[in-house]
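Throughout our pipeline, every protein is held as a single compact record rather than as scattered files. Nothing more is needed to write down the fold, since each code stands for a local backbone conformation. The record that follows is passed on verbatim for readers who wish to inspect the format.
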Amino acid sequence: MDLKRGLLFVIAAIALIPLVLGLAIILLIASLGGDGKGSGNYASGGLNVGKGGVPPQYAGMIQAAANSCDEGLPPAVLAAQLEAESNFDPTAQSKDDNGNPIASGIAQFIPETWAEMAVDGNGDGKKDVWDPADAIPTQGKMMCELLKDAKKHPDYNGSPIELALAGYNAGFQRVIEYRGVPPKSFAGGQTYDYVKSIMASVEKFSGSSGGGGGSFTDGQQTWTLNNPRSVDQAIAWAKAHSGDGSSGEWYNMCLAFTAVVYGWNVSGVNYAIDHYDVVPKSMQHPGDRNPPPGALMYWDTGSRAGHIAVYIGNGKIVSNDIERKGYIDIVDADQIEKKWGAKYVGWTPPVFPHAG
């Protein structure tokens, strides 16, 4: 609720752009269905319903709200927003320091946004911010519109889901202003940090059943994966455990980190450069610098081990040691060559033939 208070003056200044303020947490699409099309780096996976997950009475509403969006909005994104905003409490109301109401209901809408966006979800002739049957479809409608806007800016810093969430938090005009997720210097870092927390919580609502695996395509070939984490979950996990979220245990452990990103305990291969060779040749893309998000990229560093990193889109990789020894950071992929003088080898889908 602090973010709502901190940005209230911004709302007044930019009243032409109504928005919902609050925290949101990325999670992945429910096991009830949905193909995740057009969702950027986030697609289908399992939904944890019940204890520790989505209250069963809201699961159907969340799924329907997500299904109504043709942009590929994962229902678990909506579920996690509801938990963060109100802990699924339809009577929740946030107030400013003077006790004046700011936002209301299970999805914590401010009045201006509700007046603009409200949906009569249950068809009873009313648009009631206190009724989850209205508030959840309205939440889905707003996130869908933001996701559509986000996809118009593939050059911005962040995936479409991240950009949409930043817009949900601070207004999409701020995303445009900063050409991506606003930096820490904006609003005391609240938007930046909340996007970070979103990524850190990806798996909370993702059920263990059906949560991994999935498919991977380069536009010409499609491969079935058997990793414990899906590509979407892996990217989110990697981002959450980079930068401020990184521990310092990864010195000279690029292949180990890559395997852990995809949910494995061990890669089953001794050296990063050797992993390229254990991947079937039909999956190898030598010299290709346009991998899909989630791909594994490889470099010959001149040493026996070589280097491997996970590509997360927009020219970025998640890599150990490149900024700080032992730590994980998000950097431009070409930094491996510029800083280490390495030779780029190519990329493969995220397959681990010997992992366990």
Remarks:
- Residues 1-46 have pLDDT under 50 and may be disordered.
- The CA atoms of residues 216 and 223 lie 5 Å apart.
- The longest strand covers residues 307-313.
